[in-house]
């Protein structure tokens, strides 16, 4: 009977490389955000279609409702988190120059944080009546 260690590639054994122990957590997080996005996206589309022909004051009133503001914040956070997770996998798999990989990962995270903060600020400004 062979052990699991014997099934590894000899080069991998020599370098001491193995699992980073974070793949399952990343996978689960991406699946949970995807499942949440199913419900949040349906709510978002229904809300946007409901406000499609509304004037500015009515659309602002729709966003200012407490549940709509909370769901909009949840939608934006979930979209950005899910996008960062997906783009991270793509970048790690297809960008083979280390400095480009790190630069792209930082850029993606920076844009996601910037977009999230801008959206949160806008929603809070409308919801709190500022």
Automatic annotation (TrEMBL):
It is a multi-pass membrane protein. Keywords: Electron transport, Heme, Iron, Membrane, Metal-binding, Transmembrane, Transmembrane helix, Transport, Tricarboxylic acid cycle. Pathway: Carbohydrate metabolism; tricarboxylic acid cycle. One of its GO terms (cellular component) is membrane. It holds the Pfam family Sdh_cyt. It comes from the Bacteria. It is found in: Membrane. This is Succinate dehydrogenase hydrophobic membrane anchor subunit. The gene is sdhD.
């Amino acid at each position: 009977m062979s052990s699991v260690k014997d099934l590894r590639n000899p080069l991998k054994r020599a370098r001491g490389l193995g699992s980073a122990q974070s793949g399952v957590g990343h996978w689960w997080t991406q699946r949970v955000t995807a499942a949440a996005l199913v419900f949040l996206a349906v709510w978002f589309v229904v809300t946007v279609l409901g406000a499609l022909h509304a004037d500015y004051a009515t659309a602002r009133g729709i966003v200012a409702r407490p549940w709509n503001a909370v769901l909009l914040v949840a939608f934006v956070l979930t979209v950005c988190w899910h996008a960062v997770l997906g783009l991270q996998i793509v970048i790690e798999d297809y960008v083979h120059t280390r400095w480009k990989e790190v630069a792209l990962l930082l850029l993606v995270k920076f844009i996601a944080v910037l977009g999230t903060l801008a959206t949160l600020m806008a929603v809070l400004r409308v919801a709190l009546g500022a």
